[in-house]
Amino acid sequence: HHLLAPTQPVFTFEHPNWSDPIDNSRSASLRFERMPGAGSAALHGFAGYFECSLYKDVTLNTHPPTHTHNMFSWFPIFFPLREPVYVPAGASIDVAMWRCCAAHKVWYEWALTGPVTGPVHNVGGRSYYVGT
After folding, report:
1. Cα angle vertex 47, ends 70, 68, to 5°?
2. Are 48 and 41 in contact, with CB atoms under 8 Å apart?
């Protein structure tokens, strides 16, 4: 894979969650700024990484620059686009992301909002979800 722009944090969680009621749903809109001299590209999707601070300096993460050494049980996730999208030279990339929760499953939905607008992917967790 090739990163077209620097990575950004999307969702943050605190444990334990003392909210009443507990709701771990999240949404975010992100803009990935590209260098002015960046050439055109074909965007196939978005990489997702996980970073977790367990206690003080004890961490687990799949983010390549700081990936946890010898951790083979967790992997980055790929959020694909149904069709590749042409990104003009220097153009930024905008995406909307949702973390959705139901009684027995969790899933992500995403939609490209720039440089062109695309459909929402994985609606209702139809292609992928975590749970029973």
Report:
1. 15
2. no
CA 94 – CA 63 distance, rounded (Å): 21
Rounded to whole angstroms, the Cα distance separating 109 from 128 reads: 10
Among all chains, which residue has been given the structure tokens 């749970």? Answer: 131
Residue 1 has pLDDT above 80, yes or no: no
Q: How far apart are CA 13 and CA 59, in angstroms?
A: 14
- Across-strand partners of 52? 60
What pTM was computed for the model?
A: 0.89
Residue type, 80: P
**Bond preceding residue 119 cis, omega within 30 of 0:** no
pLDDT tens-digit profile of 15-46?
888 888 888 999 999 999 998 888 999 999 99
From residue 125, how far is each of 18, 21, 85, 107, 129 by CA, in Å? 26, 22, 23, 5, 5
Instruction: Pull the structure tokens for residue 29.
Output: 């809109």
